[in-house]
Write a structure and sequence with these properties.
By secondary structure, the chain is an alpha/beta fold. Helix content is about 40%, strand content about 10%. An 8-stranded parallel sheet has the order 14-4-3-2-1-17-16-15. A 3-stranded antiparallel sheet has the order 6-5-13.
Length: about 650
């Protein structure tokens, strides 16, 4: 990697460069707004004084209580124009806008209780604010959003089940046995069931084909239970005189689901879907059985009620026709228990009274049976309907996320036609922390970007009349990825050591995986924005390049070697805004700003040292041409300079 060392220094705006070299000014910085940073005009001007010539604007949520006036829509037309003028006057490039991470964490609509189209629209609207702000304040570039589309496990993810790095990651040591799987009702988006792998389920033992897992009859022939779940035959234990049950572990569920999928290619089920169907089948049959039981009892009771009515009619007529002195002959003993016979006098009632009382009891029973039978029947149908609408979070949410990203890509394309826009606006989902869910792993990010591009191209052809080639080109231009070097490094904490492998060997092997992923993303052609941050692989840090242990410099150098021309910004604000830039420049081999031999405290006859930069005037006695950090003077006009007259 070479930087120019002639008269023009790396912090000059008009230094010499050629197509074979990468200028240090192309590595910019992320600036924020809000508490401690002020408005964007303040943070941008501060970055310019520190030598930045490319900048990413990182937004804050609107109307923070402690910092009023934040958020993209807090900037009016004149303030947006002011940012454009600041960039033009100082010959800098505002190359990207970061949507507030506290507001937008996914494009699937995931909230506390599940997935919601209302939540999805709110988050998309926040991104739309960023798109318009990028057009009017930055004149184009990336619009960064975080990915964390839906929860997924690590240990059994597809990218962890095949290839060179198979079985290299796990969320925690017990994940394989205790991980939680989530199921969604695709009618509402509600997460209605969580299945833990350590969970054990006990269900009736039905007669099934051991190879296909289909239900069979007494003769072993496959039966269709879709219309009548009671066709299923429970195994009868003649010796114990009871119907059998069986207990299934997650391993049993996995094996059975594989058998099912092998013989039912039109009804492929994940283990968690198969698990849910197993429990729903049993519940439906049980509920349907109760409905039939109450229905049969209802018929018996109704028949008895009709008999009582006939008897009541007979005895009413008989009692009315008998003389009063003869009616005692009709009295019947009632109201006592057998064991109390002879101890207390029995009650006596006329037949009509006894029949009326029994008819009343039966009518009450009929009401309960009617409600019970109808209720169980409705519950059985609801269970059957729910079973058909249950799906995994991935199947449900991924489609939502892709649809959202494709729509936002179209919005970015439209805003790119704004006359003041100088470069294409594109949506740039960023790989977030591993445990945040889908989109964090490079394979997931690649799939996300490519599938969203395909969806956008499809919509452009269908709804706007674009040709296939033009639609695909527009989709590629307006949907790209943000590659965060530190977030990728956070996979280190989930990287599994091999038996008897020492930590240094694990680190070396992980670094190879890291570079493999960078190469994979570059070859996939998805990267359009890069956040340069270093770290240690376990926590979320913002350490400057070269100050951590990740192969960040190698990753950036690889991308540049492959011809990467997109935005690169340092997000390493953890050590202060000055080191956020200078340490990256140092790591990339940039010389110190100097056109003559160093003097003073620097090494005699040698090149200036970066350690001399941060806390000195470069060994000179004259005032510095550039002042960093809190020493930077304000450029706001004042009537009095503050210098005392004497």
């Amino acid at each position: 990697m070479k930087f120019k060392t002639g008269y023009f220094g790396p912090m000059d705006r008009n230094y010499y460069e050629d197509k074979d070299d990468f200028p240090v000014s192309s590595i910019g910085t992320t600036v924020a707004e809000g508490q401690g940073s002020g408005a964007f005009r303040d943070s941008v001007q501060g970055a310019i004084r520190r030598g930045a010539s490319t900048i990413e604007l990182s937004g804050s949520p609107e109307g923070q209580q402690q910092v009023p006036g934040t958020g993209f829509e807090a900037y009016g037309r004149e303030q947006r124009e002011e940012l454009r003028e600041i960039a033009r006057a100082n010959e800098i490039n505002i190359n990207s806008v970061h949507v507030p991470a506290q507001v937008v964490g996914n494009l699937s609509g995931l909230g506390q209780n599940g997935f919601s189209d209302e939540m999805r629209k709110r988050e998309m609207d926040e991104v739309r604010k960023g798109i318009r702000f990028a057009a009017e304040a930055a004149q184009g570039g990336a619009v960064v959003v975080h990915t964390g589309e839906f929860p997924r496990t690590i240990e059994d993810a597809r990218w962890n089940q095949e290839g060179r790095w198979k079985d290299s990651f796990e969320a925690y040591p017990e994940e394989k046995e205790r991980a939680i799987k989530y199921l969604v009702d695709d009618r509402t988006g509600d997460i209605i069931k969580s299945v833990r792998k350590s969970q054990i389920v006990t269900v009736p033992k039905y007669k099934r084909d051991p190879n296909t897992m289909d239900y069979v009859d007494e003769e072993g022939k496959i039966i269709d239970i879709s219309k009548d779940p009671l066709k299923k035959k429970v195994v009868w234990n003649s010796e114990q005189q009871k119907f059998e049950t069986e207990t299934k572990t997650w391993k049993d569920i996995e094996e059975e689901s594989k058998k099912w999928n092998k013989h039912h290619p039109d009804d492929i089920l994940t283990p968690e879907e198969y698990f849910f169907r197993e429990t729903m089948d049993a519940q439906e049959a049980q509920t349907k059985g109760w409905a039939i039981y109450h229905s049969h009892k209802y018929e018996d009771q109704k028949e008895m009620a009709n008999k009582i009515k006939k008897a009541l009619d007979f005895y009413n007529k008989l009692e009315d026709s008998m003389p009063e002195e003869e009616k005692w002959k009709l009295l019947r003993e009632t109201g006592y228990y057998r064991e109390l016979s002879g101890l207390i006098p029995p009650d006596t009632k006329y037949p009509s009274e006894i029949l009326k009382q029994n008819l009343g009891d039966i009518n009450q029973n009929l009401i309960h049976m009617e409600e019970g039978a109808a209720g169980y029947e409705a519950q059985a149908k609801d269970i059957a309907l729910t079973r058909e609408h249950i799906t995994t979070t991935e199947k449900y949410a991924k489609e939502k996320s892709i649809d959202s990203l494709s729509d936002l890509g179209i919005e970015a394309m439209k805003q790119s036609n704004n006359p003041i826009v100088k470069k294409d606006i594109y949506i740039a989902p960023e790989n977030i922390f591993p445990e945040m869910g889908y989109g964090a792993h490079p394979d997931e990010l690649i799939d996300f970007i490519k599938e969203a591009r395909g969806k956008m191209a499809e919509k452009l052809q269908r709804n706007y009349g674009y040709s296939k080639s033009t639609a695909e080109k527009e989709a590629k231009n307006h949907i790209k990825a943000t590659f965060d070097t530190q977030h990728l490094g956070m996979w280190r904490k989930h990287f599994k050591a091999k038996p008897n492998e020492n930590p240094e060997d694990v680190d070396n092997r992980f670094n190879k995986w890291y570079m493999d992923q960078v190469e994979k993303m570059e070859k996939a052609g998805i990267i359009g924005n890069v956040h340069v941050v270093d770290g240690y692989g376990y926590g979320h840090t913002h350490v400057p390049m070269g100050q951590g242990v990740m192969p960040v410099q190698s990753a950036v150098e690889y991308l540049l070697k492959k011809g990467y021309k997109g935005a690169i910004n340092s997000e390493a604000y953890g050590e202060g805004p000055t080191r956020q830039l200078t340490k990256v420049w140092e790591a990339m081999g940039s010389p110190i700003y100097s056109v003559g031999a160093p003097t003073g405290g620097m090494v005699s006859g040698g090149a200036p040292r970066w350690n001399d930069v941060e806390h000195s005037y470069f060994g000179r006695t004259e005032p510095p041409r550039y002042i960093f950090g809190s020493y930077s003077p304000s450029e706001d006009w004042t009537l009095w300079s503050g210098v005392r007259m004497e």
